[in-house]
DNA sequence: CGTGCCGTAGTACCCCGGTACTACCCGCCC
DNA sequence: GGGCGGGTAGTACCGGGGTACTACGGCACG
């Protein structure tokens, strides 16, 4: 039995969901909420397995409510519903920690299957959205994660030189690199010079860019 | 009627797929292939709506075959099937241009629904994979796409200074910036100095890192 | 054994980058 | 009018970065 909290600002919409979910034995609507604040409170109180969350609501919207419910860590999983397939909503919802994203025009069996999947720990995305999501994903995935060949310039570096390049990418000066690697600054300069030459960079700045483009340094990683 | 090309190195597996797909009126298996090379050739020859592609095959694998079929641009959509939910396969398949990714242990109706969706231009992902994909996606999505506040240091920059910062992020020297912006190098230096001061960077290298971390420059964007 | 690659280290030289400070023009607003 | 922020521009100074070249110990490989 899967317990569900229905969140939508329109009473009629909530009624529809309740009718549908109560018509099958496997789901049980244990509560309703008309806006984000109420949703967060009821989620904490009722501990539903799944929260069926509308995005557009007056007051606190579904995204923020999702963020808080997920942050609360009560094991409730959030399935976000929206009328429009606006990209910002999808992105924001996923970053907020939603387990799924479906369109309101989904067929009843799709919705039920979605709830089942989410309750089961899986995730669901409306097919119409999946396509664009995959497109973006393919664009975002770091180059080295696929089957493409490694940049020959990178491959030409020795292990030491690669370490140096990473250090350059972190923004360290030659002096800092020397200190942290316990080397003389002369040695660092030699290494840096060879790195620049091998990757075809005219200065360390181009090397920093190269390092970022080739995912040698993590963003926001100091 | 959806035409399908079945690609798998195991004859029995192909037989199973053919039985299933031919048992419903909406799909029609118009060909089979036992490895990547044959798949590419038959896809070009038969122009199927959907290619049901196994990943692991002797010789050319399903990923490379997918890449080539998609690159051929014959409107054939590729639905990748695998026994294992290995991340590398998923990434590689999506980058190769696959329209979907399902596990072989999917129930028959799931497979049929997947083929239907793919033929329809949508995309599908096995629920078990969707979860991890969303996790990664949330991690990859540029920070500014959600509801988080913009870095106050960025907000303190004037429009001109932001342009300068982007230019720094591209690796341009002061001289190059001066030339492209039609400014004197002195002016550029003045701007750069103010930018460094405002974002708290000790030198332009830290500024480059800042620009990348705040997504002001696109990777691989010269 | 010699040859080459790698990592280490040094000297010498020059230039770009960054700082400090000043200066002028323009548009806006009190 | 006067003040102010933003954009432009200049001079002077200096330190770090990059280049060129040399050098040597260790280690592998033919």
What can you tell me about this protein's structure?
The structure is a homodimer of 222-residue chains. Chain A has 222 residues and is an alpha/beta fold. Chain A folds into 2 domains: 2-140, Rossmann fold, CATH 3.40.50; 152-213, Arc Repressor Mutant, subunit A (Orthogonal Bundle). Chain A has helices spanning 11-22, 36-46, 62-72, 87-96, 108-119, 127-140, 152-155, 159-169, 174-181, 185-199, 204-213, and strands at 2-7, 27-33, 50-54, 77-82, 100-103, 124-125. In chain A, strands 2-1-3-4-5-6 form a 6-stranded parallel β-sheet, with helices on both faces. In chain A, helix 2 packs parallel to helix 3 (62-72), helix 3 packs parallel to helix 4 and helix 10 (185-199) crosses helix 11 (204-213). The longest helix of chain A is centred in the C-terminal third of the chain and has 15 residues, at 185-199. Chain A is elongated, with a radius of gyration of 25 Å. The two termini of chain A are 47 Å apart. The relative contact order of chain A is 0.09. The model of chain A has no long low-confidence stretch (mean pLDDT 87). The A-B interface holds A 63-64, 88, 91-92, 94-97, 99-100, 117, 120-125, 127-128, 130-131, 133-134, 136-138, 140-141, 145-148, 169-171, 204-206, 208-209, 212-213, 219-220 and B 63-64, 88, 91-92, 94-97, 99-100, 117, 120-125, 127-128, 130-131, 133-134, 136-138, 140-141, 145-147, 169-171, 204-206, 208-209, 212-213, 219-220. Chain B binds a DNA duplex (30 and 30 nucleotides) through residues 158-161, 173-175, 183-187, 189-193, 196, 202-204.
